[in-house]
Amino acid sequence: xxxxxxxxxxxxxxxxxxxxxxxxxxxxxxxxxxxxxxxxxxxxxxxxxxxxxxxxxxxxxxxxxxxxxxxxxxxxxxxxxxxxxxxxxxxxxxxxxxxxxxxxxxxxxxxxxxxxxxxxxxxxxxxxxxxxxxxxxxxxxxxxxxxxxxxxxxxxxxxxxxxxxxxxxxxxxxxxxxxxxxxxxxxxxxxxxxxxxxxxxxxxxxxxxxxxxxxxxxxxxxxxxxxxxxxxxxxxxxxxxxxxxxxxxxxxxxxxxxxxxxxxxxxxxxxxxxxxxxxxxxxxxxxxxxxxxxxxxxxxxxxxxxxxxxxxxxxxxxxxxxxxxxxxxxxxxxxxxx
Length: 338
Ligand code: AMP
Fold this sequence. Notes:
Strand order of the largest sheet: 1-2-3
Number of strands: 5
Bound molecules: adenosine monophosphate
CATH architecture of the largest domain: 3-Layer(aba) Sandwich
Structural class: mainly alpha
Strand content: 5-15%
Radius of gyration: 23 Å
Distance between the termini: 42 Å
CATH class of the largest domain: Alpha Beta
Helix content: 55-70%
Shape: elongated
Order of helices and strands: EHEHHEHHHHEHEHHHHHH
CATH topology of the largest domain: Rossmann fold
């Protein structure tokens, strides 16, 4: 079975956009692939500065994924920081990546565009190298990504091929991964723009039902009267509903077009469909979130499995680069001494 890998940054408590755009599709992939999902805590350190936030978000993210259906026996769920080999590989890769490639990186260019006259911290610049190491360390075959991550994956493939070419002598040392590029539309927030925590337009994933309903009632809509026929496609509430459950969205579209059905009705129907899907997960989330020791156990078991793969990869890389003598050489030396 092929290996698929996904990283999740613990920079906030997950919202509905994360669930529909990343979590639910990633859980679907777990049916077809051997999945490695890691919580990218060291990546988050480029922006998270409060240690209490870091701790909280790591547990929030772990509990969210398990509550949403991730099976920790099947999927290897772990913290990036629990596998220190990733930094060793990042260094090796960094020695084969041109700094010009990093200066063309999205995150780097984004920072410069938003912070005129300032340079980003080295972590932001080096981000694509660590990301390449995250992927290559686990013999990843496929990486599901959005269009915005295409460039990073190309850099990862490029450096893997370079390692194989420079040090492999014809033998592959690193697996060159393929991208699976998702084409799902962005999940809109309350104001119709892309849902994101920083925009303040997010629908929280595991808020109590009452609060969830209140939030949904704040989704912006047109002001047509109840009787008027309405256009579903252009409305945020319908777009959200379609991403959640197409069957409910189809019914909603018919009712909106027919008239006599207001935006308040549409929001109520969307709330009910959402609460139906999230309700049971919410309970599991609350139980898991209250038991950090249990979450630590899940993460430790994932880390052990991830580290086994990482050790094998680093053994190959160390031997290929001459950082350590091949195991076969060492064995011969021991036998001669005997
Ligand atoms: P972020 O924490 O914003 O980096 O989001 C983590 C992942 O969630 C992203 O890689 C996206 O795949 C997904 N995501 C976040 N916001 C949205 C959104 N509004 N629509 C679709 N997917 C999203």
